[in-house]
Amino acid sequence: MTTVFNSRQVVKKDKDSTHPLKRLLNYGQQYRKEFWQASACSIINKLMDLAPPGLIGIAVDVVVKQQDSIIAQLGIKDIFGQFLILAFLTAIIWILESIFEYAYARLWRNLAQTIQHDLRLDAYKHLQDLELAYFEERSTGGLMSILSDDINQLERFLDTGANDIIQVATTVIIIGGAFFIVAPSVAWMAMLPIPFIIWGTFAYQDVLAPRYADVREKVGLLNSRLANNLSGITTIKSFTAEDYEISRLAVESEAYRRSNAKAIRLSAAYIPLIRMLILVGFTALLFYGGLAAVRGTISVGAYSVLVFLIQRLLWPLTRLGETFDQYQRAMASTNRVMNLLDTPIAMHPGDVPLPLKEVRGEVEFKHITFAYQGRQPVIKNLSLMIPAGKTIAIVGSTGSGKSTLVKLLLRFYEVQSGEITLDGFDIQKLRLQDLRRCIGLVSQDVFLFHGTVAENIAYGSFDASEREIIMAAKIAEAHEFITSLPQGYETIVGERGQKLSGGQRQRIAIARAVLKNPPILILDEATSAVDNETEAAIQRSLERITVNRTTIAIAHRLSTIRNSDRIYVMEHGKFVESGTHEQLLEQNGVYASLWRVQSGLR
């Protein structure tokens, strides 16, 4: 485990050192065609947008020079004809500008939506493949922040920011070139502020980057607090802790506000500072260009074009502040998303197929040892043989390692030493999905999804018919209470099944396992949240569904497992007793003591 953990640290360090934009471009190689199409439309739209000042200069040239104008030199001496050509060119340019504005807006937005969609699915898929230890070290709210808010932040930048950067670059290149062609003597004055503006923009990037990274971190903590509180709203209300939770939320929200304020304080200063640089270029051109026009060094038409173009060149640069503000937020979010995608999957998926119909269900634990990260071993050199089709029970005190055995069998965690086999095959070599497909788990912590009763019973058996769903519910002794619900099997159970009682949720979970019809059934405290009457009903259903099926029952209530083929008593990660119910009572050990306490005997 130590080796895996250290290698992760090295991988993470290497990935973090790569610029987030490069990581995003590497991810987005599949979208190159769409990117170039959108970029081309942005460039053409900007070319059309920059054309009108040129037309104004030509119009001024026609007014001043008339038969000696630029158009007249093409052979059209008539003034009316010259203005007719200008009007025609103006119409064409404006139409093309509108067409390409529609095109680039549609292309960029669709590209942003596609990347957002694919990135969210890829991130979620990768998240599902990570081992449970990853989730234990992170909050649900923090992960939700990455899957939702961070990906949305990237989408917002792609919507408009990428187009803005391309169009500003196009503007600088085209207008800069025009300046040096039309009036090279004053062009350098107009262009003088641009290197300082670009340098200032990148300098701002370097300063803003850590501030926005802190903003993304703070919003993750805030989302984590909100998600945690909404999940525990019943506990909050029952302990009248509303004011306490509001104060805790206020701390997280204030930290987020302060973090944003630090970034805003710096980013808000960008435009005012850039305006001062723009003022230098605009004033220089206005003054020295005007003198050059009076002296006849440049034409009046050229001077009017330059005055219009200098505004088109310099004022859009003020928008770079807002654009790079979006960019920095997007890059901070990109880093978080890419770090998730780059998290290595430590668990090998296996490559040996396991056809469901061929599974007999013989399970063996061979000298296994396991410890959760940073803790002492929970399981110590434990061996256990479970014959196919038999029912075994594991009992013991809380923390003795009973549920950990289940997690190891399902490969939620990997053993540190030893081996677990199914029908003689090492489960680490079996295909992970095949392994889990042949095991049905009924846990004490039943999770129902927001949806109908029928949808929850059919979860995992998505092609099940209505008849099969009802049959599974009858076997689980759930049909009677389901039909008494307002909409029967179509009743919405609410988030986590909150509209149902604990016993009802438990029976739906059993019906779900029945419908799956697995060769191996695991009952992890399956009757822990029910009353005696419901327990008796569940017990009747379990007696039916465990016939000729390998069953592992973990229980505190010994009455539910007394008929098991063999019972194991577990303490401190080891089996201290084993036998049938009667044999264990005769041994007069730990099991017998527990039985006397639960049955009221002394």
Described by strand count, sense and barrel closure, the largest sheet is:
6 strands, mixed
Strand content: 5-15%
Read across the widest sheet, the strand sequence of neighbours is 6-7-8-3-9-10
Overall average pLDDT:
80
Helix count equals: 22
CATH superfamily of the domain at 110-341: ABC transporter type 1, transmembrane domain
What is the name of the CATH class of the domain at 110-341?
Answer: Mainly Alpha
In total, the number of strands is 10
- Give unreliable regions as ranges: 1-14
Note the overall shape: elongated
Terminal CA distance? 46 Å
Backbone structural class = alpha/beta
Helix fraction? Answer: 55-70%
- CATH architect. name of the domain at 110-341: Up-down Bundle
Provide the CATH topology of the domain at 110-341: ABC transporter transmembrane region fold
Over all CA atoms, what is the radius of gyration? 36 Å
Structure write-up:
By secondary structure, this protein is an alpha/beta fold. Among the domains are: 232 residues, Up-down Bundle (ABC transporter transmembrane region fold), CATH 1.20.1560.10; 145 residues, Rossmann fold. It has 22 helices and ten strands. The chain has a six-stranded mixed β-sheet, sandwiched between helices. A hairpin with a 2-residue loop joins strand 4 and strand 5. The radius of gyration is 36 Å and the shape is elongated. The N terminus is likely disordered. This is ABC transporter. It is a multi-pass membrane protein. One of its GO terms (molecular function) is ATP hydrolysis activity.
